[in-house]
Design brief:
By secondary structure, the protein is an alpha/beta fold. The protein has 2 domains: 32 residues; 234 residues, 3-Layer(aba) Sandwich (Aminopeptidase). 50% of the residues lie in helices and 15% in strands. It contains 10 helices and 6 strands, in the order αβαβαββααααβαβαα. A 6-stranded mixed beta sheet has the order 2-1-3-6-4-5, sandwiched between helices. β1, α2 and β2 form a beta-alpha-beta unit. α2 crosses α10. Bound molecules: zinc ion (ZN). Zinc ion (ZN) binds next to loops.
């Protein structure tokens, strides 16, 4: 009996040292130079135009800006990999977008949208960047309802979104659990982006906000949803349609992401 135990422990000892010797090399070969993966999610698309201005549709403006953000990231940051949820005018539901980010094992999820106000509020303009929030109040709740309402385009939304009701102000706490762990980083990124909107792009920043946006709750990484501006404000609609302003907005988002990555590196 004693000899047997001795034999087994000898084998275990050899295995243990083999693991010590080979494990680091295995790890290195698999992750020699892991890239920082950013998912860019241009909101809406296809049968879902998003919000409408007098001349522009949200889905077109946000696709143009999103492609520019990806281009900047690809060209200027060699250690970043960009994954788009769409690059053409196609419809994907919110679940597909969140799943794509989770399956890509992304480090960041950046959803890009344009805003709207009800008639009579055409004077309102500026950028907003959202992070997941459990408290739905006032205007933030209106944004959540509008951006979540795409869920209603699907007949089976009740099963698909596990009882999530875009029109309810009572938030199911379970939806927020995943994002809670990433909240601090999401806020940091959102703040970087809003700072750059105001400094780099000369936009009016309306600040970082929290809201119950389905797509933010269901991504398991730091996530933000950007509202580029109001298509219901005639001047801002014109600007959002201009290639130059789109470039500035994209450059600001790029800089916000770049600063966020640099901050992460500095704290390692
Ligand atoms: Zn939208």
């Amino acid at each position: 009996m004693r000899t047997k135990v001795k034999n087994y422990s000898g084998v275990l000892l050899v295995l243990f040292f083999a693991l010590l010797v080979f494990a680091p090399y295995q790890g290195l070969s698999q992750n020699a130079n892991p890239k920082f993966k950013v998912v860019i999610d241009p909101g809406h698309g296809g049968k879902d135009p998003g919000t409408r201005g007098k001349n522009l549709l949200e889905k077109d403006v946000v696709l143009a800006v999103s492609m520019k953000v990806g281009k900047y990231l690809n060209e200027l940051l060699s250690d970043v990999e960009v994954v788009y949820t769409r690059t053409t005018d196609v419809y994907h539901d919110l679940k597909v977008r969140a799943t794509a980010a989770n399956e890509a094992d992304a480090d960041l999820f950046v959803s890009i949208h344009a805003n709207a106000m009800p008639a009579g509020n055409e004077g309102v303009f500026g950028t907003e960047t959202y992070v997941m929030g459990v408290k739905n109040t006032g205007r933030n709740f209106e944004v959540a309802k509008r951006e979540n309402s795409v869920i209603f385009l699907e007949e089976d939304y009740k099963e698909k979104y596990q009882g999530f009701d875009p029109n309810s102000q009572d938030v199911n706490i379970a939806f927020s659990i995943m994002q809670e762990a990433y909240q601090e980083n999401s806020i940091l990124l959102a703040q970087n982006i809003e700072d750059q909107f105001s400094k780099r792009a000369g936009r009016k920043s309306r600040g970082v906000k929290q809201s119950s946006l389905w797509v933010l709750w269901n991504t398991s990484m730091p996530s933000v949803l950007i509202e580029l501006g109001y298509l219901t404000n005639p001047k801002e609609e014109r600007e959002l349609g201009s290639a130059e302003v789109q470039d500035y907005l994209a450059s600001a988002i790029f800089r916000g992401i770049r600063d966020y990555i640099e901050y992460l590196k500095s704290t390692r």
